[in-house]
Write a structure and sequence with these properties.
The complex is a heterodimer of chains A (about 500) and B (about 100). Chain A has about 500 residues and is of the alpha/beta class. Helix content of chain A is about 20%, strand content about 25%. In chain A, a hairpin with a 6-residue loop joins strand 5 (about 100-105) and strand 6 (about 110). The radius of gyration of chain A is 24 Å and the shape is globular. Chain A starts with a strand and ends with a helix. In chain B, a hairpin with a 4-residue loop joins strand 1 (about 5-10) and strand 2. Chain B has a single domain (about 1-90), classed as BFD-like [2Fe-2S]-binding domain (Arc Repressor Mutant, subunit A). The chains are: A alpha/beta (about 500), B mainly alpha (about 100).
Chain lengths: ~500, ~100
């Protein structure tokens, strides 16, 4: 059977102005019926069980290369993989149809990314000889070499996975010591060889960078909808404003939301910059040290450490994608819904051909529609009606098992699962300031407690957006604009 | 359906491990963290803390709001140590922070 790729019309609603690749069968029927995104019954549905990304030139990428960065070549386990400048190693490997990236440290279970936002620890790889780098946070460069970790001989086929089968109920290390000292030493030696996080880097760190001192009026952490709106408002009100964001591109959850997308993220970024805010990407707020001369926010960039002092600290750190509890919930192919959305909206890459969306809510519904418009076969599991009990598949998801209201178990075939649970507020840094947080299931986790103006329980700290409990990008942007203005007023008073 | 339910991806901690910890009496969130090792991996609890806190609240039969978060310690995200090598706070003769401690 032959397949050809046909470039169809553009997809304005995602902010990209380049064509969509629609897969059509040849020579049986070659039909181009407009964008794969227009929906309304005119999409091309790929038939089931077609290994369409496994045949060389074709990938999981949806669109032609026009809107992407410069094409590159990276190496995965010494195999050449096509990539583009500006995207992360994890995205490039997934787009090229690669599956298992690494193995877990204890049971050697197969691992791939879950969140695609640097927060899950699922995609740790050895990149250019440096261990434990998050593949989703490392940009592709030409001839970059990525290797799996904790796997022998390869991430796809790891003989040490035997540990997982030998201990079906888990390994309780508290009770694994024997009575004999010598035997304990031998056992420890073996276990240390079997487990762990990678091996030492190939070379020493070359030069040690100087730290950079920065003093501003308002320091905003996070450049998602809330952070960008807050920074624009603060800068417009005359405050010297710095925004730090850990990702390769600013935009946060806007880049994962089919209702907003790349164009909305760029517009919000431009607005903040034009208002006069300084924006730094790939800059992660790693700590707040209250004891260091009146308080110091440490920010790590790939080049150097920034020591930031501000009159007002404003946290717009958003939320972390979280998983649901079901058997084999760590299997590669089980993704956070937002990772699936990010692949589609930011990168034009399909998470899979047949996607099962688990969960309810606005975002799950939006994602279901967008995936379906993009040509995926989408099934949904609304956890209020029927519960997911597990996934099948050895190194990649092949099906989900669902428990219905009538007590019967049914199976849904799929090659990707999108878990749409409420994101957990990212409150680490505010907690290091001493801000009060409270656990409540509705807000997704420990939410920052704030008043109407975004004040936390600590005087010089404000917070807005999903870090105060999940409310979605529109509410976050509105809160950001309000709280940013408050922070600026107090900082310049 | 048989198989492991992973609650902490970084450290391969299963739901079974957390339940075992609670059964043994290590039932508050800091104790569960120390017994199972959840939240001590590269992600430092970003993905798992809220989930496990909910389990702890459920099993103890207490209000969610009464369960505290575990202590957050620097660094919040994986950071290469070379960035700290020239940080003045790292020098005991020079840094304001180190002297106070």
């Amino acid at each position: 059977m032959h397949w050809v790729a046909v470039a169809a019309s553009a997809v304005p609603q995602y902010g990209h102005d380049f064509p969509v690749l629609t897969m059509v069968e040849s020579p049986v029927s070659v039909r181009v019926e407009g964008s794969a995104y227009t929906g309304e019954g005119q999409r091309e549905l790929p038939p089931r069980s077609r290994p369409w990304y496994a045949c060389g030139a074709l990938t999981r990428r949806l669109r032609a290369d026009a809107g992407r960065g410069e094409p590159l070549r990276i190496l995965f386990e010494d195999n050449s993989v096509r990539a583009f400048a500006g995207e992360s190693v994890a995205v490039a490997l997934h787009a090229a149809g690669r599956q298992v990236l690494s193995r877990s440290l204890k049971y050697h279970r197969p691992r791939a990314f879950f969140c695609l936002e640097g927060h899950c620890g699922g995609c740790l790889m050895r990149i250019d000889g440096v261990p434990n780098l998050r593949a989703c946070m490392e940009p592709c460069t030409n001839e970059l070499s990525a290797e799996g970790q904790n796997a022998f001989p390869s991430p796809d086929l790891d003989l040490l996975e035997a540990v997982d089968w030998m201990f079906p109920h888990g390994m309780n290390h508290h009770t694994m010591m024997t009575g004999s000292k010598i035997l304990n030493l031998v056992m420890r030696g073996i276990v240390r060889q079997l487990s762990g996080l990678g091996t030492l880097p190939d070379s020493d760190a070359d030069e040690l960078p100087e730290v950079e001192e920065l003093t501003v009026d308002v320091a905003v952490v996070g450049a998602g909808p809330a952070g960008l709106a807050a920074a624009a408002a603060a800068a417009r009100a005359g405050a010297r404003t710095l925004v730090v964001d850990e990702h390769l591109q600013p935009g946060g959850s806007l880049l994962a939301d089919p209702r907003h997308g790349v164009a909305a993220a760029q517009a919000a970024t431009t607005d903040a910059r034009e208002a006069g805010a300084e924006l730094r990407s790939r800059a992660t707020a790693i700590a707040f040290y209250p004891e260091d001369g009146g308080g110091l926010l440490a920010v790590a960039t790939p080049e150097r450490l920034l020591r930031v002092r501000a009159r007002r600290y404003l946290y717009a750190t958003g939320g972390y994608s979280v998983n649901e509890l079901f058997v084999n919930n760590d299997r590669p192919g089980v993704f956070a819904a937002r990772a699936v959305g990010r692949l589609l909206v930011q990168h034009g890459v399909l998470a899979g051909e047949r996607v099962c969306v688990v969960g309810a809510g606005d975002y799950a519904a939006t994602l279901t529609r967008a995936l379906s418009d993009a040509g995926c076969e989408v099934s949904t599991v609304d956890q209020r009606e029927r519960r997911i009990i597990g996934v099948r598949g050895r190194t990649w998801v092949t099906a989900v098992e669902v428990d219905g209201a009538d007590g019967k178990t049914s199976r849904i075939d799929c090659d990707a699962v999108a878990v749409a649970a409420t994101p957990a507020p990212a409150t680490e840094a505010p907690r290091q300031h001493g801000c009060k947080v409270e656990l409540s299931p509705e807000t997704g986790g420990f939410a920052c407690l704030v008043d109407g103006d975004g004040h936390t329980s600590v005087e010089d700290v404000l917070a807005c957006g999903d870090v105060c409990g999940y409310a979605g990008p529109e509410a976050a942007a509105a809160a950001g604009a309000r709280v940013g203005a408050v922070a600026a007023r107090e900082a310049t008073a | 359906m048989k198989g492991k339910i992973i609650v902490c991806r970084c450290e391969d901690v299963t739901l079974h491990d957390v339940e075992h910890s609670i059964e043994l009496g290590y039932a508050d969130i800091e104790e569960v963290k120390r017994f199972t090792g959840f939240g001590t991996g590269p992600c430092q609890g970003k993905e798992c803390m809220a989930l496990i806190a909910r389990i702890v609240a459920e099993r103890a039969g207490v209000e969610a709001a009464s369960v505290p978060a575990f202590t957050s310690r620097p660094p919040i995200a994986p950071t290469p140590l070379r960035l700290f090598a020239r940080d003045p706070a790292g020098d005991p003769d020079d840094g304001a922070g180190s002297e106070e401690r």
